[in-house]
Amino acid sequence: MDRTEKEEIAKKCTRMLEKMMKDVAVPRNIRKSASNVKNKLLNGDESLAVRAAAVISDLEELANNPNIPSHMRTLIWSIVSQLEIISVEE
Asked: Is the dihedral of CA 21, 22, 28, 32 positive or negative?
């Protein structure tokens, strides 16, 4: 997988995080966490694989939050599965 494909996956994941941030059914603290995760994925001095691994860890913690709606938990696991492609490729 080349760099452009990995960047496209990261963009797709940020769009999914933005969807979560705009959903008013999601508690405010979870939307804020999603925003922080998105910023961590987009910005950083590390390689995309390292950022993806860090974001996966944050998303797993977020998915275990008891206040998160089930449809958002499913979205989080979808994002995690996409990011795992990036983190294991390098």
From this structure: positive
CB atoms within 10 A of CB 1: 11
Question: Mind listing the domains of the chain with CATH numbers?
Answer: 3-89 (1.20.1440.50)
Nearest to 66 by CA among 27, 13, 34, 37: 27
Residue 61 near residue 76 (C-beta atoms within 8 A): no
Q: Is residue 50 a contact partner of residue 68, using CB atoms and an 8 Å limit?
A: no
The per-residue pLDDT for 89 is 62
d(CA 7, CA 28): 28
User: Residue 90: pLDDT above 70?
Assistant: no
